[in-house]
Design a protein that fits this description.
The protein is of the alpha/beta class and 378 residues long. It has helices spanning 14-23, 32-45, 56-66, 83-91, 136-146, 200-207, 213-217, 237-247, 250-273, 300-312, 328-333, 343-347, 361-376, and strands at 49-53, 74-78, 95-99, 121-124, 149-153, 161-162, 165-166, 173-177, 190-194, 286-287, 293-296, 334-336, 350-353. It is globular, with a radius of gyration of 21 Å.
């Protein structure tokens, strides 16, 4: 049987919660289940507000609106990320400024950020790749010195921590993804964390198409009206109900994924010791969530050969992002500051292995065995 790269997670009670939403006669946005899940996030991470959204992309768009990003502004981020990190700022007319990554973590190199700052710079967007934190102490210090805002792209980061703090709760804003490829999923979905209470009221308006409808439902106004720009960022109650079933088991799912990650690491360590591959690096002070397990091959040609070999043996593996600065839209709306020393080179070596909650120990051992066969022969 084929070992799939990903299989969406599902909680034991996910379907029951979806049935509950239907019985509540409330399957559009902001029903009782959405309210419960939002409050769960707020209580868990002690943040001013947690707003569930239709995607992490839309959570980032809300962040860009809350930061009043406008034409001519500049926003600093890594090029090694998904297009959703850049699009919200491009849509507001800003110029995205890319800087190189740290090859150990594939995260933005915090030591290169300050040189990319200009009088037009408004914000920094650290992307916590693979659920491993960026150097947030350094990034926050830079932001404070230059009066910049921080919106964390923690799409892959739920259950990951940096020096005790949940990723997404360190900067001014933080975002999660609940896409089907993430550790916890509602098919398509996201979340926006807001650290400062003064942004909450406007965030609710933006999320409700630019209206003060949230106040109306709370009885704070007798009718609602259009008061700001915004869009329809509310997820369906059915999607949130599906997610809630997984949040009931959040620790168990996390431990299961960590066990798979550790099996890969232990089983492939000898290949790293013999300089055949490189394995993930977890910096001190970081607790990761086993969002992915990747290896780095010698180069892009060896990576493709390994992908083909694994597929022949019924194992699906994938490479990841094509750096944004080399994409047509990136060439048009962004610039790379400094030298691309590692972004392209490292992106061409990285290969993601299957990792999901339905993966068995036998599956993991087969993947390890076949990778060893590729490098050592039969």
């Amino acid at each position: 049987m084929m070992i799939h790269f990903n299989e969406p997670p599902i909680g034991k009670k996910s379907l029951a919660y979806m049935e509950e939403a239907i019985k509540n006669n409330k399957i559009c946005g902001d029903g009782p289940i959405t309210k419960e899940v939002s409050e769960w996030f707020e209580s868990r991470d002690e943040t001013a507000k947690a707003l569930l959204t239709t995607s992490c992309t839309h959570a980032l768009e809300m962040g860009a609106l809350l930061m009043n990003i406008k034409e001519g502004d500049e926003v600093i981020m890594p090029s090694y990320t998904f297009v959703s990190t850049a699009n919200p700022f491009i849509l507001r007319g800003a110029t995205v400024v890319f800087v190189d990554i740290d090859p150990k973590t594939m995260n933005i190199d915090a030591h290169l950020i300050e040189d990319a700052i200009t009088e037009k710079t408004i914000a920094i967007v650290p992307v916590h790749y693979a659920g491993v934190s960026c150097d947030m102490d350094k990034i926050m210090a830079i932001a404070k010195e230059h009066n910049l805002m921080i919106i964390e792209d923690a799409a892959q980061g739920l259950m990951s921590r940096y020096k005790g703090k949940q990723l997404g709760t360190i900067g001014d804003f933080g975002t999660y993804s609940f896409h089907e490829t993430k550790n916890y999923s509602m098919g398509e979905g996201g979340l926006l964390y807001i650290r400062d209470q003064r942004y909450v009221e406007r965030a609710e308006v933006i999320r409700e198409k630019g209206t003060n409808r949230s106040k109306f439902w709370r009885g704070q106004v007798d009718k609602y009206t259009w008061v700001d720009c915004g869009s329809s960022y509310l997820p369906s109650e059915l999607n949130v109900a599906f997610l809630k079933g997984q949040l009931d088991e959040i620790e168990n799912i996390n431990n299961l994924r960590l066990d798979i990650w550790n099996q890969y690491y232990a089983g492939l360590k000898e290949l790293e010791a013999s300089y055949k591959i490189e394995l993930p690096f977890i910096p001190e002070g970081c607790i990761h969530n086993a969002h992915m397990f990747y290896i780095k091959t010698k180069d892009i040609n060896e990576r493709q050969q390994l992908i083909n070999f694994l597929k022949e043996n019924e194992i699906l593996s994938v490479f990841h992002y094509i750096p944004l600065h080399s994409a047509p839209k990136g060439l048009e709306c962004a610039r790379f500051h400094g030298e691309d020393k590692y972004t392209t080179k490292e992106s061409e070596r990285l290969l993601r292995l299957p990792l999901h909650m339905h993966l068995s120990t036998m599956d993991v051992q087969k993947v390890i065995k076949k990778i060893k066969e590729f490098y050592y022969g039969e």
